[in-house]
What does this fold into?
Amino acid sequence: MRNGLLVVAAVVVVAGIAVARLGVTPAAGRAEAYTAPRTADGKPDLNGVWQAFSTANYDLQAHPARAAMALRPAPTRTEPGGLGRATPADLPAAPVRALGAVGGVPAGPGVVEGNEIPYQSWAAARKKENFDDWLTRDPEIKCYLPGVPRATYMPYPFQILESTNTILIAYEFAGATRTIHMEDAGSSPSDTWMGWSRGHWEGDTLVVDVTSFNDQTWFDRAGNFHSDALHVVERYTPVSPYHLMYEATIEDPKVFTRPWKISLPLYRRYEKDAAILEYKCVEFVEELLYGQVGIRDPGAEQTHK
Amino acid sequence: MKRVSVLCLGALAPAMLLVWLLPASPAAQDPATAKAETANAWTPSRTPWGDPDLQGVWRYEATMPLERPKNLAGKTLLTDEEVAQRDAVEREQEAKRLAGEEGTAVGRQSVADSPIRGNEYNSFWQDHGRPRKVYNRTSLIVEPPDGRLPFTPDAQKAEARSAARYGVGPYESYLDPDTGERCLTDGVTALMWQGPNGGHNRIVQSPGYVTILHEEYRDRRIIPVDGRPHGSIRQWFGDAVARWDRNTLVVDTINFADKTNYEWANVWTRPSETLHLVERFTRSDAETIDYEITVEDPTTFTKPWKAVIPITRLPDKTEIYEYACHEGNYAMANLLSGARAERGGR
It folds into this structure.
């Protein structure tokens, strides 16, 4: 909570906006000092290009900087030790070593309320396996649809396009788009990567109830995961012309012992040319996924007989 | 035209959801009122911020082919009798479909017509679901007057090469299949009316933007309608800007990038770097958009061509669904390892 408070405090200072009574809690929906502008049909106007600036996509939880996203254990020390309790740093795994400082993981205060993700014991073990085997398991690496809430805090902008009974959230990563149904649109006929989203307004807050997920997406690059029983309730609350507070309550009785919550601010991209451009990453990962399958490997320029 | 994304459809079907649960209500179309040109008589409703309202889920549901069939050369319009005959065929196929018949009886492509093995399965995805509308025009193309694509000689050769290769190979690496099989796109030119079941598109408007979500490949165009000039970045979908011309949305797109390794399955959909696309969306009645497209690309065509395409609004509550193509692209690995096995490896 304290970390979240700091983030909000920074937001307020940067924006130069005095927001009275915000200091008590960063929870969305309680920033009563700000009232969002209205659309032509009287709804809060959240239109615009937004982006998270957070280390949440590296790791939802508080974490020190790491040498790389894929690590190998530090070598055992052969010299006689000096002071006790020193922990040698893990090294970048061989496939990502060439990235050097660019491939490191910046430290972050975490976005999970209370910092604990309440895994069931089997799931905690699985999360650790995911972390250790990140390079082959993270669906982001394969350009798969990122799921919710992960799409929100990936390092790419997204655009909220507000119509009357439909709101689109158009993400740059992988060209993912969510349709937020503001009127009854039935239920999803199948499990999906991005879920089935039903929205409503609570004051200025857009509340989105998301269900019908498959079990294929992750929450971050640290291996945090869920099952097909995932249920996410998102809250988007405007707190200034340039900021939304984002909150997601995550529930999954197959994986967690109780619901848990993340929150982080979203920032308006208001430079003149702010737009969602193409990030059709399929073509960026074909070499990784299929290069060694064919007769010819365009990346290695070698022929498999 | 006959090769509309067929191979990739079969390959990717397990990963996708398509809309077809449409009411089987007959789509009545009085041939006498069929229009060949855009009409501005009907006044569309407005969005709360005052733009003409194009919103809804739309698809192409007519029988007109893009190009005028060679056996109809010189004939721009069908007679009333011919329209009635074709309409009867559509209804007959509908009746057979409801009676549980399959294959050519319900208008699907015959296996013999396709070079692609397993086309029985592919043809399943071509089902129209309800009778198509019969118009009296013989081609979607209205210019040039012969109703045919004005290919350059090079493009003609490319079309022939592509046709010979499609569904046959070689498939030596992931760069060999076409962009559809790679789960990238089938290009913008045919976005509004091609694809499975006629191509489902959801149009959503918000102040200053018209967004088109094309279900297949989850192609998406977020089109600014705010007077901004073209940007400079080349993309698969180019750089689109739009304006309102009374009740018509006019979209102008340039700066396409063609990053394919091989020629496009349908050469005429190729977004070459010299392509300039102008699209006009006009609602001509409560359930129709007259979609007019002008294609100018000196690399592929000797002169600009223009098509006028009626797009049908699907009933309220029709959804488009998530198209997780790449996520389920088992076909790619199977295609490549199959080619490798045929070559005598492994």
Observations:
- Chain A has one domain: 2-64+105-288.
- Residues 1-27 of chain A have pLDDT under 50 and may be disordered.
- The two ends of chain A are 58 Å apart (CA to CA).
- Chain A touches chain B through 49 residues (CB under 8 Å).
